Amino acid sequence: MISRIRGKIIEAGPRCVVDVGGVGFELVLPEKDVEAIRPDSRDATFYTYLYVREDRMLLFGFLDPVDRELFLKLIEVSGVGPKLAMGAISLQPAHLIVAAIRRGDAAFLQKLPGLGKKTAERLCIELADKLDAIAVSSGAGPVDAPSELREEVVLALTSLGMTRGSAEATLDKMKWRSDDTSSVEEIVREALRYTSS
């Protein structure tokens, strides 16, 4: 098992290539990590999982070890493959997915790409008591479901050219909370200032 690699990024993209001692490892990354990397001379660390099938091998990589741990838990569930798990992690921060599973919020999970009602319910049933270590590692306490206000902010930011993953990540870095009483316009302006600083 290849659980971690460190090397220079020589190609950035959904399939990133990292040079480790002269060997180029091709990694499949979640969208939010693709947006965070660029080829340069500094070493980068990726937390990885080698997926092996009869017809192919894929090395999945994550900048955050919490994302890797959540990915591994998700693909243990019947009906959830690596593509679906990667799509979920690309769209929402790990601590929000963990919180939704722990409180049995299948409606929130159904908004993730490729997750139907039955699979979302299965995630809640099978993983509800298996994510404590991830919740602690992510620093996430009890988290409310994203409010309508947050969704409006994300939609506004994506209409201005951000990807959804980048908009969500910006709100998380701003430590935006669902009980924020600011207007959509105020939060969007703050987010744009935050990304340009």
Structural commentary:
The chain has 197 residues and is of the alpha+beta class. It folds into three domains: 59 residues, Nucleic acid-binding proteins (OB fold (Dihydrolipoamide Acetyltransferase, E2P), Beta Barrel), CATH 2.40.50; 73 residues, 5' to 3' exonuclease, C-terminal subdomain (DNA polymerase, domain 1); 49 residues, Orthogonal Bundle (Helicase, Ruva Protein, domain 3). It contains ten helices and five strands. It has a five-stranded mixed β-barrel. A hairpin with a 3-residue loop joins strand 1 and strand 2. The termini are far apart. About 6% of the residues have low confidence.
Distance from N terminus to C terminus (CA atoms, Å) equals 40 Å
Mean pLDDT: 84
User: What is the number of independent domains?
Assistant: 3
In one word, what is the shape?
globular
Report the top-level CATH class of the largest domain. Mainly Alpha
| Sheet with the most strands, sense and barrel status | 5 strands, mixed, barrel
Percentage of β-strand residues: 15-25%
Fill in the CATH topology of the largest domain. DNA polymerase, domain 1
The main sheet orders its strands as 1-2-3-5-4
Strand and helix order: EEEHEEHHHHHHHHH
Q: Which consecutive residue ranges, at least 5 long each, have pLDDT under 50?
A: 136-146
| Percentage of residues in helical conformation | 40-55%
Spell out the CATH superfamily of the largest domain. 5' to 3' exonuclease, C-terminal subdomain
Total number of strands: 5
Class inferred from helices and paired strands: alpha+beta
CATH architecture of the largest domain: Orthogonal Bundle
Round the Cα radius of gyration to an integer and report it. Answer: 17 Å
